[in-house]
Amino acid sequence: MPPAFQHPRSANSEGQSPIHCEACQSAFRSGSRQAVSFLLLDHLTVPALGCDDHLEQFASVCGLTSEDTADLLQHRPAGGIRCPGCRLAPHSTAHPMLSVREGAVTPMACPDHQAEIVQRFQTGLRTRQQLSADIGTSGYSNY
User: Fold this and answer.
1) What range does the domain containing 68 cover?
2) Which of its termini does the chain have fewer beta carbons within 10 Å around, N or C?
3) What's the rounded Cα separation, in Å, for the pair 124 and 35?
4) Is the residue at 7 inside a domain?
């Protein structure tokens, strides 16, 4: 099950947004379909919201869980979105907001695909951390 939704427009107790990236804040505030990108990852096509930089970082981390690359489209994919739940998901407000460095990304998918994307992102973060740790302790410090 996906984590509890935290609406990107909400503010913390000091009245500040939880998102420190102005471009992400703008994407969340716009409410425009033009702000939505599409993450293509294996068999999934998931609408996602965030700024271009943080969407790219998100896709890169998710791509670590795939044999193929994760791609981002700034337009609706030619084949559309296969999952009926994911097609309707952008009209719902129950989506997780995932922190990506100082910004955020909201994958707008059905509950099953939300859970898969969240899990892949978390697994990708652990993989990246492990790869970084392995490089730092591999004994190849002369490079």
Assistant:
1) 22-136
2) C
3) 25
4) no
Please report where in the chains the tokens 């913390």 appear, as a residue.
12
**Which stretch of DSSP H or E encloses residue 122?**
helix 111-136
Q: Give a yes or no: residue 60 inside a domain.
A: yes
The structure's pTM equals 0.77
Whether 109 maps to a domain, the answer reads: yes
For residue 23, give Cα distances in angstroms to 8, 27, 80, 86, 126. 12, 6, 26, 25, 26
Instruction: Give tens-digit pLDDT for 76-120.
Output: 888 888 888 888 887 776 788 899 989 999 999 999 999 999 999
The reply to whether 6 falls in a domain is no
Non-local (6+) Cβ contacts of 72 within 8 A are 37, 38, 39, 40, 48, 55, 56, 59
List the structure tokens of 117.
Answer: 């994307």
Confidence of residue 137 (pLDDT cuts 50, 70, 90): low
